[in-house]
Design a protein that fits this description.
Layout (H helix, E strand, L loop, with lengths): L2 E6 L5 E5 L19 E4 L24
Antiparallel strand pairs: 1-2, 1-3
This protein binds zinc ion.
């Protein structure tokens, strides 16, 4: 299940929600002030959070797939 990151426009809190694909902002409410005025942020939690070293195709790591 993908993780979506939101930013509350009312209190400014950033929070993350596990949501199904196609969920919209109206399905999300701020956990702090319960406001639904939230903005979806661009999250890079697609598959791996390994951003320290992104191997190219020539670099074969044994720990990968
Ligand atoms: Zn809020």
């Amino acid at each position: 299940m993908p993780i979506y990151e939101y930013n509350c426009l009312d209190c400014g809190r950033e929070f993350m929600l596990f949501q199904k694909m196609g969920a919209s902002e109206s399905d999300s409410a701020c956990p702090q002030c319960k406001s639904t005025k939230v903005k979806k942020l661009i999250s890079s939690f697609s598959c791996s959070s390994d951003t320290s070293s992104v191997p190219t195709a020539s670099t074969h790591r044994s720990g990968g797939m």
